[in-house]
TrEMBL record:
<dbReference type="InterPro" id="IPR036513">
    <property type="entry name" value="STAS_dom_sf"/>
</dbReference>
<feature type="domain" description="STAS">
    <location>
        <begin position="19"/>
        <end position="116"/>
    </location>
</feature>
<dbReference type="Pfam" id="PF01740">
    <property type="entry name" value="STAS"/>
</dbReference>
<comment type="similarity">
    <text>Belongs to the anti-sigma-factor antagonist family.</text>
</comment>
<dbReference type="InterPro" id="IPR003658">
    <property type="entry name" value="Anti-sigma_ant"/>
</dbReference>
<dbReference type="InterPro" id="IPR002645">
    <property type="entry name" value="STAS_dom"/>
</dbReference>
<protein>
    <recommendedName>
        <fullName>Anti-sigma factor antagonist</fullName>
    </recommendedName>
</protein>
C-alpha cells in the first residue's frame, strides 16, 4: 500500500495548527515521503503540527523515527507535534516504545488543534 498525505491549516485555541492527514502505511518504503513533508512544513514556518493518523494501517520503526525527527525539528523552533490516533493496534506501538511519554496523543483532530501548549 502507498502513503497518502494532505495538509491544511486549522485555527485552534493556541493559534493556527497545520494538520497533516496521513493514510496508508508508514514503513521503510514510504516514511521518506512523510519525512520530506514534515521538513518542508517546518522550513516554511509551520512549527505547530498535528499528524492525523486515523487513516494509517501500518506503522514500523522507520515511521516512528520520522515522527520523532519531526518532533525534534518543531521543538527547535519552540513548536509542537501532536498525534491523532485512536486505533488500538497503532496506539500499542506507542505504548510499547514508551513514546506515549514523548508525544501528546489525541482522539480527534479538534481535540489536538484546541489543546494549548
Amino acid at each position: 500500500m502507498d502513503l497518502s498525505l494532505s495538509t491544511r491549516t486549522v485555527p485552534g485555541a493556541g493559534g493556527d495548527r497545520t494538520v497533516v492527514e496521513v493514510g496508508g502505511e508508514i514503513d521503510v518504503y514510504t516514511a521518506p515521503k512523510l519525512r520530506e513533508q514534515l521538513v518542508e512544513l517546518v522550513n516554511d514556518g509551520s512549527y505547530h503540527l498535528v499528524v492525523d493518523m486515523e487513516g494509517v494501517d501500518f506503522l514500523d520503526s522507520t515511521g516512528l523515527g520520522v515522527l520523532v525527527g519531526g518532533l525534534k525539528r518543531v521543538r527547535a523552533h519552540e513548536g509542537s507535534l501532536r498525534l491523532v490516533c485512536n486505533q488500538e493496534r497503532i496506539l500499542k506501538i506507542f505504548r510499547i516504545t514508551d513514546l506515549t511519554k514523548v508525544f501528546p496523543i489525541h482522539t480527534s483532530v479538534d481535540e489536538a488543534v484546541n489543546a494549548v501548549d
